[in-house]
Predict the 3D structure of the following.
Amino acid sequence: MADLPTIAIWKFSSCDGCQLTLLDCEDELLGILGRVQIAYFPEATRAEIEGPWDVSLVEGSVTTPEEAERIKEIREKSGLVVAIGACATAGGIQALRNWANVKEFASIVYAHPEYLETLETSTPHSDHIDIDLELQGCPISKAQLVDALLAVLSGRRPNVPTSAVCVECKRRQTPCVQVLGTPCLGPVTQAGCGAICPSFARGCYGCFGPKETPNTVSLAKRWSEMGASEDQLLRAFRTFNGYKPAFREESARHGG
């Protein structure tokens, strides 16, 4: 056991959905567990192995002073750091605070906001440390996660797609909802979800964040031609991955 690589799974500000995706791997996870040691994973075990660790999976965004310090410590003690999910790679839905007054929010939500210690922003881990690999998604893809873990164990490069959700629509022979009149973020969103929403005649919501070199300007123009207002465009690009540079810059063009 001592020679097996160690993997630690760390939670930051999040809903735990991406950690649950790891547990949902079930049969695949059983095979992986025979080849690694879980050093830290409170979601699944109370066992704990002191660092350094070979691989750290970090879920959730950095939203408190304590988290900003903790991610630096994890980076120092980890061989590889993999950010998993929209919170860890883009700040998550809680990054909406980045365009608002956090103190005002706190006064509305908490009876005693004076006891709350938080940052003005919710940011991805890449804003604080060097990240070796990012797995986008809200939540992440089980297949991508398993492949990434197997890639780390075998010393190969992970197969993380850079194409758009449109490619997945074509593979499953789903008619283009945008051609049929429904605004869709699929052309600028990274593949990984299996094009779930378009398969139910709904437009993509951008859960997997911007694809490689997304042409958001062209897509926004097309939405405008379809009747979308500036406010609708602003909201479309400001969701789970709204703080990713490509989506953040596009939302700013529409009144952000």
